[in-house]
Amino acid sequence: MGAHICIIGTGYVGLVTGACFAEVGHRVICVDNDLNKVAFLQRGGIPIYEPGLDEIVHRNVTEGRLRFSGQIADGVRESEVIFIAVPTPPRPDGSVDMSYVEKVAREIATSITEYKIIVDKSTVPVKTGERVAETIRRYNKDKIEVDVVSSPEFLREGCAVQDLMQPDRIVIGVASQRPVAKMKEIYEPFHAPIIVTDINSAEMIKHACNSFLALKISYANALSAICEASGANVEDVVHGMGLDKRIGRAFLNAGLGYGGSCFPKDISAFIQIAHELGCEFDLLKEVQRINAEQIQRFLKKVHDTLWIVKDKTISILGLAFKPNTDDMRLAPSLEIIHSLQQEGARIKAYDPKAMDKAKELLTGVEFCPDPYTTSVGADALILCTEWDEFRQLDLEKLRSVMAQPIVLDGRNLFDPAKMKELGFAYKSVGR
Ligand code: UGA
User: Which of 17, 64, 207, 253 could form a disulfide with 270 if both were Cys (CB 3.0 to 4.6 A apart)?
Assistant: First the structure.
C-alpha cells in the first residue's frame, strides 16, 4: 500500500521528490508555508518548469496519492516519515543559512505525538543531522522518540524526474538501525543500490559529489584555455579522456562555467565547512577561481572580436543557467549581459523557457519571441545556453537577418567547420 510520507518544502527537490514517491505508490502530502504556492498547486498549477513533472503531479493528485497543504501539523500527523526539503541559501560569507531547516525542525517537534522518522533531504552542512535531532529533542515537550536520517538528493534540474525515478544510488545516513527497514521500503521501488552509512558520512557524500563534479567542469575549462593557446581542440581532448573508464566523459564540457542554485553555493559552503573543521580545501578555491575566470575569458573574446562594444546590437540566445529549465539563478548569461550593457551594448535576448524569470532580473533588454527576431540587425550573436532548439536553427536564415555574421558560442554547440562554410566569423571555447 506504500508508506505515508510528508515532504516539507515544495521547491525543486521537495516537489519532484513528493511527486515521484507518489508515482511509485506511496501516499504523499507536500507542505509549504507559502500559501499562495499551495493554492496554486491545489488548483493544478506547477510553479517550476521541469520536463515530465506536470504529468506525474496531475496523475497522482487525480489518483489520490498526492496532496498539498499549508500546515506542517497536518502533514506530520498523517505521516510515518517526514522529509525536510526546505531551502538552505548561501549567506554573504559563503556559509549556509540553516534557519529554515531549524525552524521546520522546531515545528515538527511541536507537532509530533508519536514515533516518526525525520529525513533531511536539503543540501546541508555535515553535522546537520545531529543538530536537527538535538532541536527536536529540545522542543518536543513529551520526549517522543524520533529517528533523524540523512538522505541527500542528487537530482539535476532539467532532468529531475528521470534522476529521481532512475537514481544511480540512494544514500541513507542513520544513527541506529531502527529506521533502516522503513527507509528501504520507501526507496525499494526505485531499484537502485542503497548505501547505509552514519549521518555525517551521508552528508559528506553530497558535499563530495557536487564539489567533484564542479572540479571536473573547472578542469575542462582550464584545459580549454590551454587548448586555445596551443591550437589543440578541447572537444577532442575530453573525448579522448572520457573513454578512459576511470575518468568518464560526463561533466567535462568546457563552456561558460557552472552556475545555478547548487554548485556555486555548495562549493563555497564546503570550503567554509572544511575551514571551520580546521582543514583548508584550497583545491576547491582554485575550482571557483577557474569558474569565475572562464566568463572573463569569454568576455575578452567578445571584445577582441568586436573591438568596441558600445552601441553594438548583441543577440543573446539562451538565458537559463542550463538547458531544460527556466531557472535563472547565477546563470552565466546574467554576468555577460550586465557587463555588455555597462559598456553600452544594446541587448536582444531569447530563451525557450526562462524569459519570464529573466524579465524580473534584467532591465533594458529587448526580449524577442524567437531566435531569428532576436538576431535581426545584430552585430554579433552570443550563445549562452545549449538548448536543443538551437541545434535545429536554420543558420543561413540566421545569417541573413544579422547585420554582421559573427557568432560567439559559449557552449560549443555548433560545428566550427560548418559555421565557417556558412560564412560566419565563429568563435567557441577551447577549439
Ligand atoms: C547539480 C548536481 O548535478 C546534482 O547531482 C545535485 O543534486 C544538484 O546540483 C544539487 O545539489 O541540488 P544542477 O545544479 O541542477 O545539479 O545542474 P547540473 O546539470 O549539475 O549543472 C550545473 C552547472 O554545471 C550548469 O551551469 C551547467 O551548465 C554546468 N556544466 C555541467 C558545465 O559547465 N559543464 C558540464 O560538463 C556539465
Answer: 207
For residue 197, being part of any structural domain is answered with no
In this predicted structure, the answer to whether residue 221 has a pLDDT above a threshold of 80 is: yes
R_g over Cα of the chain? 23
263 C-alpha to ligand 1 centroid (Å): 7
Closest ligand 1 atom to Cα of 251: 36
Considering 192, 222, 247, which residue would you say is the last residue of a domain? 192
Using CA positions, which residue lies closest to atom 35 of ligand 1? Answer: 251
Residue 1 has pLDDT above 90, yes or no: no
Q: Is the pLDDT of residue 95 over 90?
A: no
Task: Out of 235, 262, 288, pick the residue that ends a domain.
Answer: 288
Residue 105 lies in a domain: yes
Cell 545556453, residue located: 385
322 with 263, same domain? no
Residues 384, 237 within the same domain? no
Q: Whose CA is nearest to atom 31 of ligand 1?
A: 251
Is the domain of 144 the same as that of 167? yes
**Angle at CA 297, nearest 5°, toward 366 and 352?**
35
157 shares a domain with 49? yes
Question: Which residues are part of the catalytic machinery?
Answer: 262
Domain count within the chain: 3
Q: Is the pTM of this model over 0.90?
A: yes
At 376, which CATH number?
3.40.50.720
Closest Cα to atom 22 of ligand 1? 258
The CATH number given to whatever domain includes residue 228 is 1.10.1040.10
Q: How far is the CA of 154 from the centre of ligand 1 (A)?
A: 10
Are 33 and 181 within one domain? yes
What are 120-151's pLDDT values in tens digits? 999 899 999 999 999 999 999 999 999 999 99
Expressed as residue numbers, the domain containing 418 is: 294-427
Q: Distance, CA 279 to ligand 1 centroid (Å)?
A: 25
